[in-house]
Amino acid sequence: MTTKLLSTCAAFALLTTSVFAAETPARNKALDKMMYTINPEAVLSGPVYRDQGDAASKSKYGTEVMRIILKEAHAKAEKYLEAGDTQAYYSIMVMALTVPMQEGLYIQYRGVEGTDICRAEANSGELVKKSGETNYNLFNQYFKTAEKPFFPNCETIKTDKLTQIIRGGDGTDLSIMQVSIRWHFDDFLANRRFESTTSTIAYGLSHLMKGFNPVYRNVGDYKCISETGIFKKKKVNYINLIRGIWAGQYNSGSISKTCRFDDPTSPYKHHDKGFEKNLNKILDFTGTLQVDMVADFKIDTDVAAAVMEITKNLKEATNNRTALDKILK
Amino acid sequence: MKKVIIGTLIVIGIAGVWWSQTSHPVPSSEVASEEKVQKTPDEILASDIEKITRNLKAENIAGDEWKQINTYSLPAEKIVSKENASAFFRVTQSNIPDMYACLKKDYCGMTTRGEDDAYFDDQRTPAHILINRNLKVMKEALRKDSSLKSQVDWEILQELASSEAEMLQVEALDILREFDSESMKTEELIKLTEDYKGTAKADALVRIAKGKNPSDKLLVASEVEEVFAMSDANTVISVLENMKQMALSKVETNRVVRNLCRFKDTEEVHNWTMIKYEAKKLTAEFDKICN
Fold this sequence. Notes:
heterodimer; A: 329 residues; alpha+beta; four-stranded mixed β-sheet; two-stranded antiparallel sheet; 13 helices; 10 strands; B: 291 residues; mainly alpha; 0% strand; globular
């Protein structure tokens, strides 16, 4: 149902695009509402997604994001590979490829052209000022430093070529990993890790690993992940392990909620269904990544081959990694 | 032109229906429309911090010390000097019990954002983060001015060290270890870590092993031996991964790793794979020991 509607939307979008502008794809206005506008002078590191760009630029963007994810995930998972636990390694890789799609639609920065895009309420700090002096001081501390505010007032931005960063609905979750600034202000925010896609992904993956390691090692405590196999050896369900780490550590903030995804009465079952849908997109990946509301990213052959190796290895408990090793070189 | 406008309206309409019906692509955070925004992120963040500061004494949050304590981009070593150590000590010593009291009461008022927000990390609330930071600043103040030692409230530090909050345990223990050596014996420090789990246990033992007393390493080795014999797999592997930093002798290492052999026949094959990998980095004789 959702996919059908999405396809219909895409068809209409294509139609209107061709009427309004023959050469430049239309701006994805849904994204306007999900972004803060960044100071044009800010130094950022990472690929920039352009919804007004052509298919080739989107392909390049998606490929670059996947390449960063693979490298950062490998750094976190490498010890499992070296130890000979390849299934744990590939499950971390698959989890790393899925979470940025679930959380931030594979977008960290967006480049967009237009004069009506910057959201004054989000960028100004006026609301903060009205709510009290302490709030205003904090806003200044993190995003409004006098010399170079990261989120300047919209009226001071003298260009219509904007760079934006994705945020959550109430604005407290920031970046491709949707890191909550309420819970991670001491490092993610204070050390400005959001200024780099690589640092952001590394931070989010570290947070995932704080759940992965204890859950995986004490897997017997989580019935939704382990099952007894032949000769009474515990068999780990790696797909459920990935679902559990996201549901518990990442979405609930506690590994005690790891089996939430397996509870039909959970009030957050729609969260977990959404995650499962995105996980399946990675597991079934054949070269094009469909990110809801954003784009279909046709991934370059070398990176696509590496991702397909990863998913095949996880599903078939193998360890063939010629394409992946080329990417990680 | 009319057709184009109608077409555009249909697209917007269909997108709206889809948006409201589909499982949200970013359910954890609800990337949503501007209209839904009630407060800016900084308002929410400030509100969280305010819930804590209302439990603190006015004079402790009025000065430059409080501002610097909250500037997390600067490590404690950078903000504390011999000249200002006393002021930082006074503020942190006073803040820590007040914050811990409200943490125990209701996490200092920290809540989820609403019904659809599942996230609540009861081990890492803003109050935990602030107490952890205050402990680090207090430790630095004591390092810069040892005369402050006589004023330390050791009781609250012992309470924090034996609490269930991992973010507080090790930092409090570290102050006790470094500055209360006259009354806190290494055995007592190790006893305080009895219920520590995972990386907190590993971190604590690494710090205790750095003690000046030569017998400290022997005591740590005995504790590691106990961990390997009795603890859960996560704590065992966390300690094992950090054992190199404890710099135990070869004899001690070969003795303590013997207790890892129990994992050879356990149900979780993957844990034995990791244990073998880590243990072999410490001793070439591991295979022989467990055969």
